[in-house]
Amino acid sequence: MKVKAIIIAMGLAALASTSAFADSSFESATVNQTGNGNTADVTQANSHNDKVNVNQFADGANATVSSDGGSYNVTDIKQTATSKGSSDLSATVTQKQTIGEKTTITQTGSKLTATVSQTSSMYDTDTVTQAGKNASATITRNGSSYNTVNIDQGTGKTSGPTDGAKATVTQTNTVANTVDILQGKNAGIATVDQRDGGYNHAKIEQTGGGTDGKIEQWAEVGDHASIKQSDAARSQIHSEYGGYNTNTVVQSGGTAPHYAQINQSQANNDTTTIIQTGPRYNEGYVDQIRSSNDTAFMIQIGDTNKAAARQNYGSDNVVVAAQVGGHNKMDLTQQAAFESTLLAGQLGGYNDIKASQSGTKEELTIAQIGDGNGANASQAGSYNTASITQIGLLNTGMTAQTGVGNAAVINQGGAFNKATIVQK
């Protein structure tokens, strides 16, 4: 049996008159549906402070809520599957020119779909909670500001376990919006795309193995983007044509490797941080091109890790990299740069650092504590400075400089160390 409930402007719970299809205030309506294949449609036009509750206990249920030109309305959609198979639950919320709307979607079952679309809206709060397998949540915002979206896919904080969850948030011409994505269990995929706006906050937090988090920023200013992952995970942050953004990746726990990559092009005054504390086989990469006044921090704790940073064609950039553990490798490059700085440190044994700079008035500092470490520094240009400090046994330090007015210093403490300086 298929039941369709249509409530327009919410003041007509009994659907008694077409004269009240819009401009309602402080009204309430409830739709309760039991049985498979039910559909509930709620349409709000110029309504204010109204409340709608949609409760569907079924498989194949669909709920749609549309709000146009309203304010401070509250909508609560709850969908619960009746079988253990594919429940096919779907909920869609569309908000246009709304203010202060509060929408909650709660889905329990499998093959769950939640979609929220906002256009020219302000101060709206949308919460999506999904528990089950193959959950999908999609949020799209255009020309909206000061809105909040919370997506919880099986973290156990507000719902049950979820495998194979997917969350996608797209924001265009938005200001000061907040996105918070939480994914539990395994194989979660989360993507945030922000363009032509500013001062937005996006956070992805994933637990479980095989997760993937990605944040894209285009022509954004003053954004805060962060990805936090545990167990085997992959993360990417890409930023272009913006400035004053803060990007952070934190990966910890698990026995499998972590992978983190941050790419920035013509994004000035950005701060980038990668922190990896998995036991081994972590990889972190920072790539900044034609950017100025950028700062990149890379911290790895564990063994057999790789860290690489590249800054090309910029000025006043800083890279700070540190590794704690053994058999780690670091490769740092600043090319065609002006007044930029490389600072690298390793604590442990059998680590290796390679650092190179080309440009003018560059500074390079390497410090290693442990046995069997190797450091190789090269500089090309004018008025550059290189310093290598090693404490331990059987360490090797090498510097090569080409240009005018350069300076190199190697300090070694311990036995059987080797130092080489070449200047041309």
UniProtKB/TrEMBL annotation:
GO biological process terms on file: cell adhesion
Keywords: Signal
Any single Gene Ontology cellular-component annotation: pilus
Keyword Signal in record: yes
Top-level taxon: Bacteria
Family annotation (InterPro entries): Curlin_rpt
Transmembrane region(s): none
Annotated family: Belongs to the CsgA/CsgB family.
Protein name: Curlin associated protein
Organism annotation: Caballeronia arvi
Organism lineage: Bacteria, Pseudomonadati, Pseudomonadota, Betaproteobacteria, Burkholderiales
